[in-house]
């Protein structure tokens, strides 16, 4: 590693070994940065290189990697982000599953960049609770005995007060992470979360409570005037898309959510049903009119799409924890059959205070509700909880018990895949996860390529780094036209053209997690604009082809990581329910076609350069320069 970096990076990685309290700094060079970009790319590289085969996700051999990207902390809208990754504790094996990729917004990523580092690798396990303090090129490991057991708000307050700076940004866990709830998230502040894949449980398994960061020097960019020009263009055009305008007005889950059942995109009662007229009581338009007290945003982003809610009856909800995003409204609301907005907002607050992923918390509860109603779980199993769809009392009780691993909560805390193993008796028919990750709250039965993404993506049923089918119009094809995609294809179709479109769009989304930028306004950014941003920040003259190649390298590296952790092509499978129709609503005629999805999976392997079992071919690894 010798080439120097002209912009976008500090060129330094912080490595912290908690077993022997060693803090080290490693240098990055330009060629490495160009091959993996940052964020999810860096995470994948280090996990593949350093985590041993068949590692215990909750053991000291797992590593927790935080990575910014070249765009993090610049003037580009939505650049206040970073990625977090590890081997995921979720899955069918007690050792956990494959790779966990999770993005977070807020201010932590930009602050890390200003602190002098591009990424942090945490390894080993501390013998006692600790937290890490990173500031202006230095790092230390501090005692966290007095913080253990506290919720996220108390922890953040205590850390800021003992370090004497209210502007410190804190990545942290609450009791959910400490108790190694397998789907614990990693909070950044009190309402920005690296939610997916159980990265909070990995932090808890290392006896680590938090990473506090503060810095004062952003790395230089290669072409500052050009970057200003692009930033101005993005700001001037920001609200031209009606989705961005709605985001600004109401945040995610706005009034459009009310129409999601009409098109079959809202999960209802564990993905069983289609209609949910009560959605009119829980969407973000109603939040705006009733319990909302403000809007907040991430570093340098004028969209400010983050709701803040507050109320005192019938529960007290603290505005410090923000408010529910769409994924929480669906996972803890419609998918549990719950239409009580205040109960959903309270559950969201508890998840943020305890560090639980709202999607997986709702996912395992809705699965347990269905099992209870079908007699697969009894009152004796649940400790007397009438766990029925629509019971917000039961849902709230479960959230509390999961975080503390009390009673039945201890079983739910193991996640949906482990609950299936415990219950047996055909319960897998109703388990809505892929590779242990509970499904993101959009409907594959109406978007076949999105379903393919749930199947083959290395981190499972994730909705972010995926592709939402929208190539049924010329407008929808706009971002991919420079790659020669000129023919439209229906959203519920899955054919070789659709698979190629999926591969392309999935790569485009991956770029946001490598650079790192917000997905929520991705409609403004085609490959060309992304190339322009990369050039302005780093000085590299990249192309669409290079982005696709970087994407192939990262997806293939993640695939290799999963294979070494024991996953196979058999893990690229959708929950059975997606092949069946919903009980009512627009998807009540048919589910996905299993033969077509199987052909699509095989064709995806082919165009990725993987063999029939989904194992990357040696020639492909050589071509992409993956040599470990
Ligand atoms: S659009 Fe919303 S989530 Fe994305 S960066 Fe802006 S404020 Fe954050």
Describe the structure.
- With 628 residues, the protein is α+β, with helices and mostly antiparallel strands.
- It folds into 3 domains: 12-214, Aldehyde Ferredoxin Oxidoreductase,  A, domain 1 (4-Layer Sandwich); 250-435, Orthogonal Bundle (Aldehyde Ferredoxin Oxidoreductase Protein, subunit A, domain 2), CATH 1.10.569; 444-624, Aldehyde Ferredoxin Oxidoreductase Protein, subunit A, domain 3.
- Helix content is 38%, strand content 12%.
- The chain contains 24 helices and 16 strands.
- The chain has helices at 30-36, 39-50, 108-114, 152-163, 175-178, 199-205, 224-237, 242-250, 260-263, 284-290, 326-331, 341-354, 358-373, 379-382, 392-404, 408-412, 416-423, 448-456, 474-477, 496-515, 527-538, 544-564, 594-608, 618-624, and strands spanning 12-17, 22-27, 64-67, 82-87, 99-104, 119-123, 130-135, 138-143, 169-172, 186-188, 192-194, 208-214, 292-296, 306-309, 433-434, 437-438.
- The chain has a 6-stranded mixed β-sheet.
- Strand 15 and strand 16 form a beta hairpin.
- The longest helix has 21 residues, at 544-564.
- It is globular.
- The protein starts with 11 loop residues before the first strand and ends with a helix.
- The mean pLDDT is 95.
- Iron/sulfur cluster is lined by residues 78, 80, 105, 247, 297-298, 301, 303-306, 518, 520-521.
